[in-house]
Amino acid sequence: MGPLAGRRIVLGVTGGIAAYKAVEVCRRLVDAGAHVAPVMTDGALHFVGRATFDALGSEPVQTSLWDEPHPIPHTRLGQGADLVVVCPATARLLSDYRTGRSDDLLTATLLATRAPVIVAPAMHTEMWEQPSVAENVAVLADRGVRMVGPVDGRLAGGDAGAGRMADPADIVAAAFDVLGATAGGEPSGDLAGLTVLVTAGGTREPICPVRFLGNRSSGKQGHALAAEASVRGARVQCVTTQPASAPDDLGMEVVAVDTAAEMAAAVFERASGADVVVMAAAVADFRPVDVADRKIKKDGGVPEIRLEPTVDILAELGRTRSGRQILVGFAAETDDLRQNAAAKLESKGVDLIVANDVSAPEVGFEHETNAVVLLDAFNGVSEVPLCGKREVAGAVLDAVLDIHRIRDDKMNDKMDDDRADRLPNGDDT
Ligand code: CTP
């Protein structure tokens, strides 16, 4: 019995390239125990075959007002639903829904329901920013429709900008939220009960009030980890240098910091309460010894900036953590990826290193995608080929859970051994 057991969800899919991501939404909702009735528009059928949703949904896909044995399919679907989720939602769908047009099964179902509705728009930036579209969205939101996304990112045809559909996990999290799907008031998910502390972004070390030493980290991978941990039920604390782009609708604690010293203070304050610490941040290794209190002017000549080391937060955590805490570090490398990552696993005393070759195309800093190698302290090595940062986050958290299980098994074996040692010979009570 999943947390959504007994809940009936109509999943509307319209014609956008993001329709393929609705497949993942469907799978996650069904996995959570919901009864999912997929409804596809004609446009959606150009992007994803109906067989995919037939196979994954809880009942066959419906596409038309006219060809179902039930005489009025939209009222059956609309009245029976606990929730309607539309992903992706095109500009056409938003317009029809706003104005009450109902010339296909999905729009008719939307009119025929009193259930809450979640809409995940997806379109090109120019379309998303059209005043007409913005007005439709504002009106629908005002009527109580829950909008999820869109977010900034890669769009169809190689463009980038606002209009990318929200991540499937965030759409599913919104469904959980709307349906109040928690087990006994506690969050559900495979990380429920764990506190996960994640750092994200690159630190900035001031030289003067205007300039700093920084790096190219955007915080995207750290934020994806924080979001994924959150939707999988963890209590999340996210210490970030990029608070404006941190996930703000998932109930996590976001702590804004700027320098390595501030990040260290925020992490050390929270680390003892965390079951898992993931240091995804790119922390400066050096900072200026002296910070000028006024802008350094160029006619004063080329300045000499003396540097001193910052604290290595991860190595310090590796030295001081409790035996049960799982510590995850990142290794951003340009050469000898595996050797350097293995050396960091050892020298920093961590359980898992997420290594990426930041010189490879589409990998690491500022990109939406990443490709990593995971090395764990039990000699496990696995590769996560080029994919979205959210998928990488999922793989990292899966690896964390594996380590958690291995630890528990070892702990149980040790307790059994200790107990056996304490028992007199022949006593098997
Ligand atoms: N890290 C840290 N504190 C620092 C520097 C790095 O906690 N002062 C953490 C990072 O968050 C990351 C890991 O250590 O999880 C490895 O960071 P990376 O920059 O790849 O390696 P460094 O230890 O800085 O070593 P080098 O720059 O020589 O590769």
What's the arrangement of secondary structure elements?
Elements: E1 8-13, H1 19-31, E2 35-40, H2 42-47, H3 50-56, H4 73-80, E3 83-89, H5 91-99, H6 105-111, E4 117-121, H7 125-128, H8 131-142, E5 146-147, E6 151-154, E7 160-164, H9 168-178, E8 195-200, E9 205-206, E10 212-213, H10 220-231, E11 235-240, E12 253-256, H11 260-271, E13 276-279, E14 286-288, E15 307-309, H12 313-320, E16 326-333, H13 337-347, E17 352-357, E18 369-376, E19 381-388, H14 389-422
Parallel strand pairs: 1-2, 1-3, 3-4, 4-5, 8-11, 8-13, 11-12, 13-16, 16-17
Antiparallel strand pairs: 6-7, 9-10, 14-15, 17-18, 18-19
Helix pairs in contact: 1-9, 4-6, 5-8, 10-14
Cytidine-5'-triphosphate (CTP) binds next to helix 12 and strand 16.
Question: Key terms for this structure?
Answer:
Rossmann fold; single chain; eight-stranded mixed β-sheet; globular; five-stranded parallel β-sheet; alpha/beta; binds cytidine-5'-triphosphate; about 425 residues
Cα radius of gyration in angstroms: 25 Å
Largest sheet: 8 strands, mixed
Named CATH topology of the largest domain: Rossmann fold
CATH superfamily of the largest domain: CoaB-like
Low-confidence stretches: none
Structural class: alpha/beta
Range of strand content: 15-25%
Mean pLDDT: 90
- Ligand catalogue: cytidine-5'-triphosphate
**Strand order in the sheet with the most strands:** 12-11-8-13-16-17-18-19
Number of strands: 19
Q: Percentage of helical residues?
A: 25-40%
- For the termini, the CA-CA separation is 37 Å
CATH class categorisation of the largest domain: Alpha Beta
In CATH terms, what is the architecture of the largest domain?
3-Layer(aba) Sandwich
Q: Into how many domains do the coordinates divide?
A: 2
- Shape assignment: globular
Provide a count of the helices: 14
